[in-house]
Amino acid sequence: MSFRAAHLLLTIACLSALLVSCNRSSSPAARKLLIYTPHGQDLLRDFVARYKVAHPETDVEFLDMGSREILERVRAERNRPQADLWWGAAHTTFQTATDENLLAPYRPTWADKIPNSSRDSQDRWYGTYQTPEVIVYNSDAVRAEEAPKDWDDVLDPKWRDRILIRNPNPSDSMRAIFGAMIWRFYKDTGSPEKGYDWLRRLDMNVHEYTADGTLLMQKLVRREGLISLWNLPDVWIYKEQKGFPIGYVFPASGTPVITDGIAIVRGAPNEEEAKRFYEFVTTPESLVLAAKKYYRIPVRTDVDRSQLPAWMNERVNEMPLDWDLLRKQSGEWLRYWDTEIRGRSKR
Question: Residue 277 and residue 336: Cα distance in Å, rounded?
Fold first, then answer.
C-alpha cells in the first residue's frame, strides 16, 4: 500500500470516529430520577407510568419504604445525596428534615392554592394530601353498632387480645395517633404520664404490634385481631380494591389529620427532573386521580370538589394538636413506650 493510500485510510478512520463521537454527544442524554416514597407500589407504578408517557426519555426509579426510614436514609446520605425527590411523609417529619437542612427550597406553581399551615414558610416542603386517622374493625366479626366509637372505647376489657397495632416507630400515622393520645392529657397537665397510662391500658388489649400496614390489614382480615387504629386512605384501598371486610369509625372526640407532603432533597443529583415530577403529580388532574383511585384527600383548595368521592366532602372532626410540640417530643415519648410499656402490661 502506498503512503498516500495509507494516509487516506487513516484520515477516513479519524473522520468516522469524530462523526460517531459528535452523534453521541448531540443525542439527548438519558434523564434520571430517584424517588423515596412510602405511597405504596400500586400508586407509584401508576404515576411513574403516566409520567413516562409524557417524558419517555426519563428513567424513573423509586424506593418504597416507611416515612421515618426515608428520614434516616436522607440523613445518612446528606453528604452524598442519592434521592432527588421525597414524595410522602407527615408534615412533622418534613419539618424535622427542614430543621436539619436536608431539603431544598422550591416554590411550586400552585403555592398560593394551599393553606399556610400546609406548607413550609421557606418553600422546603408543601402539602399534597390530608390523612385522617380512624378506628378500624373487621366488619365480618364486629357489627357496626358494637365497634368502638371513640379512642377510650378501645381500652374496654372486652377487646383484650383483640387489638392489632402497627409498630409506631417507623410510621407517621401511628406516631400521630400515639402522640395525640398523650397530648390529650399533656395539654392540661404539662406531663406525659397520663398519656403513658393510656398507652399501658391499650397495651393490655394488644395482640400484636405488626411490622407494617400490609400485615396489619392481613391479620385483621384473618381475625388474628378484630380492632385496629390506622389511616383512612389505606382502609379504603383494602376495603374497596382488595375486597377486605373492613369498617371504620371516626372517633367521636376528634382525630389527628396529617398533612402529607412532597419535597426536593437538598443536593439532589437531578433537581430539574425532580421539579418536573413534583409539578406533574400535584396538578388538579393528578390529585383527582389519586383521590378516586387511591383515596388520597387533596390539600389544594382549587381542586373541583365535585370530582372527588362523596365521603371526601364530609366534615372530619379534626382534633386540635400542637404539632410542633408533638414533633419535638415524639421521639422521647416513643422511646419510653418502647422500653417501659410495649408488651409489659400483661405481665
Answer: 39
d(CA 27, CA 33): 19
Where in the chain are the domains?
A: 31-130+258-313, 131-257+319-341
For the domain spanning 31-130+258-313, the CATH number is: 3.40.190.10
Rounded CA-CA distance 226/142 in Å is 7
56-86 tens-digit pLDDT: 999 999 999 989 999 999 999 999 999 999 9
Chain segment 243-302, per-residue pLDDT in tens: 999 999 999 999 999 999 999 999 999 999 999 999 999 999 999 999 999 999 999 999
Q: Which CATH superfamily is domain 131-257+319-341 in?
A: Periplasmic binding protein-like II (3.40.190.10)
Q: Do domains 31-130+258-313 and 131-257+319-341 have the same CATH topology?
A: yes
How far, in Å, CA of 96 to CA of 341, rounded? 26
Give the Cα separation of 154 and 147 in Å (integer).
9
Q: Is 180 left (phi over 0), alpha (psi -120 to 50) or beta?
A: alpha
Q: Is the pTM of this model over 0.85?
A: yes
